[in-house]
Design goal:
- With 118 residues, this protein is an all-alpha fold.
- It contains five helices and no strands.
- The relative contact order is 0.15.
């Protein structure tokens, strides 16, 4: 159970780190306007996906995060969601990735998950 809590906290930490201090003004403003808006959005989301992929040790979950993060952030840029809804959706994604890992580990190995760094 400790590894599940550790993984959950690591997923949240990587999100908060990459979505706030490490996103910076360049990507934050760039994904909202300008001719390279979509490029900046995809770049930021790809960084988030890479972080999730590194924490989970699963490239497919990292790619799923990249896609989900792009869709969620685009909805915020378009004014379809608020900041709070945007963050709730990002956190919900982390819960889905964690649930997937738990379910697949249980079904495939009959045990709980073990983070890649252990």
């Amino acid at each position: 159970m400790e590894s599940v809590l550790t993984l959950a906290l690591m997923l949240l930490a990587v999100h908060w780190l990459l979505d706030y201090p490490l996103q910076g003004d360049f990507l934050s403003k760039g994904k909202q306007l300008g001719p390279l808006r979509v490029y900046h959005l995809i770049a930021h989301s790809g960084i988030e996906g890479a972080g999730v992929g590194l924490v989970t040790g699963n490239v497919w979950i990292g790619l799923a995060e990249w896609l989900a993060h792009t869709i969620i952030d685009e909805a915020k840029v378009q004014g379809r969601t608020t900041f709070a809804q945007d963050q709730a959706l990002h956190i919900a994604c982390k819960a889905v990735w964690l649930a997937y890992l738990l379910l697949s580990a249980t079904l495939l190995h009959g045990s709980s998950i073990s983070p890649w760094w252990r």
